[in-house]
Amino acid sequence: MPLLREAERCLANQHANKLNSFITPLPRVGQWLDRVKEADKRKEQGSAKSSIDGRLISIKDNICTRDLPTTCASGILDKFTSPFNATVVEQLEKAGGVIAGKTNLDEFGMGSHSVHSRFGPVKNPRRDHSGEELSAGGSSGGSAVAVAADQCYASLGTDTGGSVRLPAAYTGTVGFKPSYGLISRWGVVAYANSLDTVGILGKNISSVRDIFSILNQHDSRDPTNISPFSRSRILSHLQETPLSSRLASKPLRIGVPLEYNLSELSPSVRRAWLLSLASLQQQGHTIHPVSLPTTKHALSAYYVLAPAEASSNLAKYDGVRYGTRGDGPDGTGQTDGYLYANTRGTGFGPEVQRRILLGTFSLSADAMDNYFIQAQRVRRLVQRDFDNVFAASNPLSDSKNSVCSDSSSVDVIVCPTAPSSPPRLSGLLNGSAKYSPLDAYVGDVFTVPASLAGLPAISVPVTVDTDSNADVDGLAGIQVVGQYGDDELVMNVGELLAGRRLA
Amino acid sequence: MLSRPRGAGRLFDRVNRLVVTRPSNLQSLQNWHFSQFSAVSTRSVPATDSSDRVPLRKQLKQEAKALKTQKRQRKENEEASRQIWELTVGVEIHAQLDTTAKLFSRAATSTSHHPNSNVALFDLAFPGSQPEFQPATLLPALRAAISLNCDIKPVSRFDRKHYFYQDQPSGYQITQYYEPFARNGYVDLYDYDGIAREDGERVRVGIKQVQLEQDTAKSQEYPPSTQLLDFNRVSHPLIEVITMPQIHTPATAAACVRKLQAILQACGAVTTGMELGGLRADVNVSIRRRGDPAGEHHYDGITGLGQRTEIKNLSSFKAVEDAIIAEKNRQIAILESGGVVEGETRGWTIGSTETRRLRGKEGAVDYRYMPDPDIPPLVIGEDLIASLRDTLSTSPDQLVIQLTGPEYGLPIEDAKPLIELDDGARLEYYQDVVDSLALLHPEEKDDTAGTARARMAGNWVLHELGGLLTKADRAWDPEIVPARSLADLLDHLQRKLITGPTAKQVLAAVFEGDRRPIPQLLEEDNLLLRPLSREEYLALAQAAMAENPQMVEQIRNKNQLGKLGWFVGQMMRTGEKGRVEAPKAEQILRELILG
């Protein structure tokens, strides 16, 4: 299909569907049309810039674009346009990619269902058996829906504690969170810097892989970006045997974390997990139980650390230099009051305010030791848990042994992305007692550990037959987690499962 | 920690504009006298208004006397209270580093550029922007830490200190709270640094730590409701130097701040001192009754202290001393009346007599220090430290030793101001003059002649040239009297080719802009000494003796040699101007009168 026709079909879908996946959709006419036509010519001449030349790629609205607003779905930035492009945007455009609008999200990335948006909730194109609207997952719900509803070729999201993987699982798309520090964060609006990772959402693994290869470059403007020296060190480490032979000439050792078999796991998800493992076994790989004992503390640690960093990162939004000021006189009216109490009070939504307050508390002098410091310790333990079960050593840790000799060690971990299928939007929006903020946090229980450890993780869709249980449509997200730097392996293992119908 | 939430920053800026712009101790001393004097005369205004008018001279005399009595009384009171109460002071200094790079952005530092012209995205805390540490800023910071005898940490880290204020774009300041880059240094204060007499010849004050941090934006207030913000200053690199609470007199605290400034300037860590706002100080003050059981407070590992208070944003040495005296006396008054000193933050306004409360414990800001998750640890190599150590310029203390040593032979009273005046520019000029003088005597073997010239040059650079500057109220500029010109002039004087009064006259002419080379000027204006012949001296002497034969007799018979001077003066007056040399005249007189 010519690129232009593909783009026009995406555009039509953007404007036809009422899924609220875009905050700023692509205009019907604009420069982008010429750029797609030029790419079509290049394609004909066999001189395409890259595999994404002329393809529409949507961008989560917390990634800065010079030509389109960047609102972070927040009232405080609802009219904000960044003066610069994020590095990832520059990289995509240089490879011929066409920015396909800005996608909806939970405000500043804080949420698991993309309902905490100044621009209204995102709707999942999937419906449950009674036709009820479902959560698209969050916080990159707009990006996932844009991919699922053919409104773009692929999409960039951000993943702080599962924000790319969870919506991928809920919408039946592929969502990849690379190792922390591989993709530049310059121009990505910070929620929790030490966890924020740009992620890629696509219909299939190969589109995700293509985009990752374009973005996986060093950028000196991001101080947390892995240096060229470390990149080549990690690469040459992976190219040595025995690591290079994994999957290529040797079957994989696949880990199943026992602690992840929660009683809260919904039956359909558990079934999808078991069938996925069975499928991998049928493909010749071996399954091994592993233990990640700190997992049960990981979620709590995450919800201390991420809000702590958020409370710091969001202190800059005061409406003084940019952004939207509150109506009427600002401040509290007292002579000693702060200049922008009102602006921050009206500009931020309730979930963002909740996390700012949480973080402010956990960093305060009296609480610091019991919360922030403890959570950092847990984070170390989570990382150690993973290092203990992976055969490959962590290239960023101090221990020097390149390959773990332990016979029980594994190459990747396979587990569900989310403990249940997407909840109904109506339940989330009506603030019913059924879904408290804590319930939303629990949805991140399987994604947060890889975020805390900075590991590559991918969520791929599998379908299980639903003759016995007509819960939804039998779609579930299965997550593959690998050692730091094992991004290729994680994508390759994801490919073994992605899109499979299992029975 | 640079903390000025709510208005403190504005106060600081306002104060800066009021202080003298010439960085000179002599100047500030003069200002101090002036302000004391005016305080007294204001008080005596009613007396001049009354019907019986006191003559002005008498009035001035009385006021001077009253001032003296007052000062003596105050000194006695201070000494009496010192016997009972022990004061403990620690100092924190914030200094703007001398570097063209900002700490975390690629924008240049600037103090005089158009407002908001040197601002990067990160300086404005734009969403998505990230810090980019500029290694160049480390050099002046390391020079400072080395000069303050600190241990330099191979790994240090940056933390965020949170508070809301409009001069703080990101809502936090990046500083080094948990792991500063330098620790455990010291500064030695000598008697010539102006420490209190009771502190003896030397005091060593420990430096707890030195840390790197960002400056904030500059705000300018336009009452009632407008604030202008200049973000050029955001992320200008600062160092904070924190001393141990080891100072026990107000004068020594002021000397400590002055000495720290001198050291930071001498090693090239900072450009401007307190007078230009490049440096500011906070002090913490506590007291305890001597002989009492140890107090229950401890700071920086020093135990047994009383409750301390902090006085923020002191912008002159004088303010440091005055604020400490006032705060100490306030605390003594509280304790003597049975009260309790509260741990609180206080402020000081120049010219006031009391510190004022800014905020108490309950209003204390919780800065929520958090390691900055974007900034990697700062790793400093031993090789960098070693090479900086090797290239560091001479410390002020070493300069004092050199200048007062055999080579220059300057008195300490001249050496100190030479080092301190004009950010070291006066010393540089002095060195140029001395070097030029030496070049005029390349063959010389005699060291003592060189020392004599160096001492003479010190006198002229400091007092003669300094006097002209003060009289004309001009700022220092080495080009007003080029070093070469002064050297030529002093050379003529030393070789007795001109007289002292002539030399002063010529210096004034050059100061006013006469740009002729000195030899040409002396030649054209006929100023070179044309020595009188013996006959001419004899004639002058005889004429003078004839005018007062009685005095001649008194000298001859009663050996009243002191009266020779009258005759010398007489010869100078009657002889041709600028040609009679006093020593020769006296020699002739002695011959004639005493035989």
Automatic annotation (TrEMBL), chain A:
Keywords: ATP-binding, Ligase, Mitochondrion, Nucleotide-binding, Protein biosynthesis. Residues 14-490 form the Amidase domain. The keyword Nucleotide-binding applies. It comes from the Eukaryota. The active site is at 60 (charge relay system), 139 (charge relay system), 163 (acyl-ester intermediate). Gene3D superfamilies: Amidase signature (AS) domain. One of its GO terms (biological process) is mitochondrial translation. It holds the Pfam family Amidase. It catalyses: L-glutamyl-tRNA(Gln) + L-glutamine + ATP + H2O = L-glutaminyl-tRNA(Gln) + L-glutamate + ADP + phosphate + H(+). Residues 118-139 are annotated as: Disordered. Its EC number is 6.3.5.7. GO terms for cellular component: glutamyl-tRNA(Gln) amidotransferase complex; mitochondrion. It is found in: Mitochondrion. GO terms for molecular function: ATP binding; glutaminyl-tRNA synthase (glutamine-hydrolyzing) activity. InterPro entries: Amidase (IPR000120), Amidase_CS (IPR020556), Amidase_dom (IPR023631), AS_sf (IPR036928), GatA (IPR004412). It is an enzyme of class 6 (ligase). Its main location: mitochondrion. Belongs to the amidase family. GatA subfamily. Subunit of the heterotrimeric GatCAB amidotransferase (AdT) complex, composed of A, B and C subunits. Allows the formation of correctly charged Gln-tRNA(Gln) through the transamidation of misacylated Glu-tRNA(Gln) in the mitochondria. The reaction takes place in the presence of glutamine and ATP through an activated gamma-phospho-Glu-tRNA(Gln). This is Glutamyl-tRNA(Gln) amidotransferase subunit A, mitochondrial. It comes from Penicillium steckii.
Automatic annotation (TrEMBL), chain B:
It is found in: Mitochondrion. Residues 443-593 form the Asn/Gln amidotransferase domain. SUPFAM superfamilies: GatB/YqeY motif, Glutamine synthetase/guanido kinase. Keywords: ATP-binding, Ligase, Mitochondrion, Nucleotide-binding, Protein biosynthesis. It catalyses: L-glutamyl-tRNA(Gln) + L-glutamine + ATP + H2O = L-glutaminyl-tRNA(Gln) + L-glutamate + ADP + phosphate + H(+). Its EC number is 6.3.5.-. InterPro entries: Asn/Gln-tRNA_amidoTrfase_suB/E, Asn/Gln-tRNA_Trfase_suB/E_cat, Asn/Gln_amidotransferase, Asn/Gln_tRNA_amidoTrase-B-like, GatB, GatB_Yqey_C_2, Gln-tRNA_amidoTrfase_suB_CS, Gln_synth/guanido_kin_cat_dom. Allows the formation of correctly charged Gln-tRNA(Gln) through the transamidation of misacylated Glu-tRNA(Gln) in the mitochondria. The reaction takes place in the presence of glutamine and ATP through an activated gamma-phospho-Glu-tRNA(Gln). HAMAP family: GatB. This is Glutamyl-tRNA(Gln) amidotransferase subunit B, mitochondrial. It comes from Penicillium steckii.
